[in-house]
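Run log, item B.
One chain of 702 residues. Sequence copied directly from the ordering sheet:
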Amino acid sequence: MQALIRPSAIALSIGLSLGCGGALAQDAAPAADVSQSSQAAPKYQSIAGADSPDKVLHVDVLLSGDGNLSYQVTRNGHTVIEPSRLGLILANAPKLDRYFSYDTSATTSHDDTWELPWGERRVVKNHYTELRVDVVQKKWQDRRMTVVFRIYDDGIGFRYEFPDQPQLKKLEIMDELTEFAVADTATAWWNVAGEWNREEYVYQKTPLKEVAEAQSPMTLKTDKGLYISFHEAALVDYAAYWLRRVDGQRLKTRLAPSALGAPVVREAPFPTPWRTIQITDSAAKLYNSSDLILNLNEPNKLGDVSWVKPYKYVGIWWQMHLNTGTWEYGPRHAANNENTKKHMDFAAKNGFRGVLVEGWNKGWEDWFARGDDFSFTQSYPDFDLPALSAYGLKKGVHLVGHHETSGNVAVYEPQMEDGFKLYAKYGVDSVKTGYVADAGGAKVKAPDGSIRFAWNDSQEMVRHYVLNVRTAAKYKIAINTHEPIKDTGLRRTYPNWVSREGQRGMEYNAWGDPQNPPEHEANLIFTRMLTGPMDFTPGILSLQGQGKPLISTQAKQLALYVVLYSPIQMAADLPENYAKYPKPFQFIKDVPVDWEQSIMLNGEVGDFATIARKDRASDNWYVGAVTDEQARDVEVPLSFLDANRSYTAQIYRDGPNAGMTGDARFDIVIESKPVTAGETLKIRLAPGGGMAIRLVAGKAKK
């Protein structure tokens, strides 16, 4: 057996005996319950185990003497996750914990590839070993549960499955007992869960032993040099989980609360979402392992999705964050016919497919955390939706729709389909949705018709977000969700869910207190960005917020288009500001948003990252790098290039006097030079700085 079980855990508890083939004997007497105390050391026996395809990771499923179910993970023979509890607490039945006995297990292998219709890469490899373990609680009418592990070389996913059984037909789940007991001392990058501003907090860097309650994904680096990320995949009809540290380095899931009773209420049969652990020996490999989340989701359910178009866009948006325009109707109303045409003309001239317009519809007069008066079909008097959409389409520019709900699902859902019908009628094929409400302030309708206040990541809101995406798909509309449920890879199942927010984006640099710190993007890459696309809205070349200068160089604003992935990317600054800086603006016009391949070349969590991506529509490559408040020299090995071609590197880098304050932020060098696959570029990043490179492919050599 590859797994290493501590010597104190080898002996069986009193009364535990083994049957043939390692199965627990059915008449095993329960031992004294010592597992509820964090000071106790339960004694475990492995009942099943399996290796990843190349035997890098190994998972053991364990039972204690009194039938507590646990698992353990090792990497190359070293324990990464110590014995960690499995199970659930129910409101309508005894808990699924203790008194388990082993029934059967099976191990299978899976190896295939599949294609993303859009994404960070075209082809995704899906190679894993699956371990299924069936357990039974004879004490409670032979209730059955299956724990399924999918073991990859760079991580694992596991979930609970509940069969159709009359003795447990309906599950009212109060919480999970799922644990992650980290073996080696670790540093954590995390943001707080269960607080008013949802996921939108600055990341903290602390010892793991100082974590309180965290959102996932949470990223760790152990003192042995391993990088670990905890998250979940395929979150459907279930509450999201938060990570609560219970003692030492032992983390335990906590389900987001419900407004209607138990956090999760489901009829069997059903599976839970996957609980995921990515494990690598470098930060770059951690980013490159993010396909694990996608692979644990079901394949595309929408059929032909050629109507989902990656694109770049501009918008009537930043001026409201600068407080030079308003969402609501009045003398400074930004979503008017003249302003919209101005933005459409700008988009057409510069090759952008879309123009986002916020504040076009009635109801913005009292919107924050309310949304009672929103109409999703009625425009303000100065916004002519049919005429404006037609005006843009003649120029090849699509109006990007907007549904701000203020988290008031009770008002939105009855209008949602009519809103999508209206957009589809006039050629709007992409919609940004918003749910601006304090955590616990979303409004849902209870079965009795009353209005209840819900968390954005509760089961009832999880159901809404999926309903929103599925309804939009009926009208061939793509969705970009702001104030969303966390990304758990559902873009594989519903490819029209093209992007989302789910962390602090660029608007915090306009009015945030505090603004995003200089290490923010280098934190995002190894945390939030492990889950999927983020509509960060980069490209503020003016480097100016609402009375606040941005803590960034111009070169970093360009780099964000490469390092922070999204199939939709906004040129977020005002058109007149781009007119002031035409040379750096050229990179924003050139950079694509749909990639054939993506490779992180080097990086460290919260410090810096260098990422290379190949365009799907050409042979060109793009490289982006960002740093924190520290200046540093980064190496860009060009070994990913085709050795049979020459390339021209168009480089946008921090100038010799660049920095993150004052006029130094605008010091940028733009240069071109021939390069080949055998070279390594060395480029200096200024404090708060970055670098962007366009590698234009020449003809292939004969």
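Observations after the first pass:
- The longest helix spans residues 409-425.
- Residues 505 and 544 are 15 Å apart (CA to CA).
Flagged for discussion on Thursday.
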